């Protein structure tokens, strides 16, 4: 059972990395295009408000980043701090959840 | 070449101590042609420090007992020529990393072999002496995969070279997992799923960062890192199938 959990977490780490790679590139391209000729809150909101594509793009990004960061922190905590076991697992899960909630809040604010 | 010069000497720092700690002690050793690091250690013990503890047996790279840290890297001392590793006539020799020290250059291999046991590293067959001998063809895909792992002589060099073991002493390490990869590709073995379960949990193969220090240092030219990657894939498939 433990082996199955670790196998799924390993796969989740790789899968979220796979998802984020094109999203990071898309995000960088968007930034470069968006800042041409200045940048204003109105301009950003006019692009994102009510736009399902950007909601899905950044929603998926937030979800993948939250999961990926939490799993990465789990490894760093185990190796660098010796912080392992159930308490460590719950702690990084809480950090991941917090990242996802804050991310969704930010996405919700501009959509 | 220094080895041809009868007066040439090597300055050798040898780690002396025990489980409670120690320090490097300096020795001057005559430099000879075709001299190995094991020759240097033996010369020191026979001529200067008869109480120097170290381990060796075959002297020809078959037994795997003379591995030590030479100038910061784990090596078979019997197969390492001084001329290839000495820097300006200088050598430092220490016991293998990532293992407790018995005394001086002799590392305690007990935790290393405990992990082989924990990984369920013994072959488990399902046939009897009355069954016909299993035919394993050299060109079978599984047999080819096993090439990355067989011929290991348990010297502990990959284990000493592994940063993941250094960071987490519970990690099984490349040698035990390499053994599991050999058995995982042996279709005569009947405990393959049990073995995946044994190496998939806490301290298991997912702690490997694929830095491949094991593969870079293996004197046998094996690829434990590749085998561990294969075990991770096998575990994911087993998780989907529900067999672990």
Automatic annotation (TrEMBL), chain A:
Listed transmembrane segments: 12-35, 55-75, 87-107
Cofactors named for this entry: heme
A cellular component term, taken from the record's GO annotations: membrane
GO molecular function terms listed in the Swiss-Prot or TrEMBL record: metal ion binding
Subcellular location: Membrane
SUPFAM superfamilies in UniProt: Fumarate reductase respiratory complex transmembrane subunits
The keyword Iron appears for this protein: yes
Keywords for the protein's UniProt record, in alphabetical order: Heme, Iron, Membrane, Metal-binding, Transmembrane, Transmembrane helix
Primary location recorded for the protein, binned into one broad class: membrane
Top-rank taxon: Bacteria
Any single Pfam family the record assigns to this protein: Sdh_cyt
InterPro entries per the UniProt record, alphabetical: SQR/QFR_C/D (IPR034804), SuccDH_FuR_B_TM-su (IPR000701)
Role played: Membrane-anchoring subunit of succinate dehydrogenase (SDH).
Protein name, as recorded: Succinate dehydrogenase
UniProtKB/TrEMBL annotation, chain B:
EC number assigned by the record: 1.3.5.1
Keywords of this entry: 2Fe-2S, 4Fe-4S, Iron, Iron-sulfur, Metal-binding, Oxidoreductase
Residue ranges occupied by any 4Fe-4S ferredoxin-type domain in the UniProt entry: 142-170
Keyword 4Fe-4S: yes
InterPro entries: 2Fe-2S_ferredoxin-like_sf (IPR036010), 2Fe2S_fd_BS (IPR006058), 4Fe4S_Fe-S-bd (IPR017896), Beta-grasp_dom_sf (IPR012675), Helical_ferredxn (IPR009051), SDH/FRD_Iron-Sulfur (IPR050573), Succ_DH/fum_Rdtase_Fe-S (IPR004489), Succ_DH/fum_Rdtase_N (IPR025192)
Gene Ontology molecular-function annotations: 2 iron, 2 sulfur cluster binding; 4 iron, 4 sulfur cluster binding; electron transfer activity; metal ion binding; succinate dehydrogenase (quinone) activity
Name of the top EC class for this enzyme: oxidoreductase
Cofactor(s) named in the record: [2Fe-2S] cluster; [3Fe-4S] cluster; [4Fe-4S] cluster
GO BP terms, alphabetized: respiratory electron transport chain; tricarboxylic acid cycle
Annotated family: Belongs to the succinate dehydrogenase/fumarate reductase iron-sulfur protein family.
Annotated PANTHER family: SUCCINATE DEHYDROGENASE [UBIQUINONE] IRON-SULFUR SUBUNIT, MITOCHONDRIAL, SUCCINATE DEHYDROGENASE IRON-SULFUR PROTEIN
Name used for this protein in its record: succinate dehydrogenase
Organism whose genome encodes this protein: Marivibrio halodurans
Taxonomic lineage: Bacteria, Pseudomonadati, Pseudomonadota, Alphaproteobacteria, Rhodospirillales
């Amino acid at each position: 059972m433990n082996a199955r959990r670790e196998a799924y977490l390993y796969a989740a780490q790789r899968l979220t990395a796979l998802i984020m790679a094109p999203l990071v590139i898309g995000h960088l391209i968007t930034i470069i295009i968006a800042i041409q000729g200045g940048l204003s809150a109105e301009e950003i909101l006019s692009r994102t408000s009510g736009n399902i594509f950007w909601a899905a793009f950044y929603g998926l990004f937030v979800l993948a980043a939250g999961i990926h960061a939490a799993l990465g922190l789990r490894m760093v905590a185990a190796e660098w701090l010796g912080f392992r076991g159930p308490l460590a697992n719950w702690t990084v899960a809480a950090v991941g959840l917090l990242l996802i909630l804050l991310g969704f809040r930010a996405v919700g604010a501009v959509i | 070449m220094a080895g041809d010069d009868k007066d040439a000497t090597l300055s050798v720092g040898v780690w002396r101590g025990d489980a409670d700690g120690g320090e490097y002690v300096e020795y001057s050793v005559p430099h000879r042609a075709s001299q190995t690091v094991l020759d240097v250690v033996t010369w020191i013990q026979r001529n200067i420090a008869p109480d120097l503890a170290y381990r060796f047996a075959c002297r020809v790279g078959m037994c795997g007992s003379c591995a030590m840290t030479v100038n910061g890297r784990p090596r078979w001392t019997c197969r390492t020529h001084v001329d290839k590793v000495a820097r300006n006539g200088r050598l430092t020799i220490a016991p293998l990393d990532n293992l407790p020290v018995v005394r001086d250059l002799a590392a305690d291999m007990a935790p290393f072999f405990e992990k082989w046991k924990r990984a369920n590293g013994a072959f488990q067959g399902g046939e009897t002496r009355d069954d016909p001998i299993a035919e394993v063809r050299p060109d079978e895909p599984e047999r080819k995969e096993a090439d990355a792992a067989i011929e290991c002589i348990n010297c502990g060099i990959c284990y000493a070279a592994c940063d993941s073991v250094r960071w987490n002493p519970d990690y099984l390490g490349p040698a035990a997992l390499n053994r599991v990869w050999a058995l995982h590709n042996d279709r005569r073995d009947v405990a393959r799923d049990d073995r995946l379960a044994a190496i998939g949990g806490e301290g298991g193969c997912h702690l490997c960062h694929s830095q491949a220090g094991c593969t870079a240092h293996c004197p046998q030219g094996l690829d434990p890192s590749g085998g561990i990657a294969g075990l991770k894939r096998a575990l994911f498939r087993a998780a989907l199938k529900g067999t672990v």
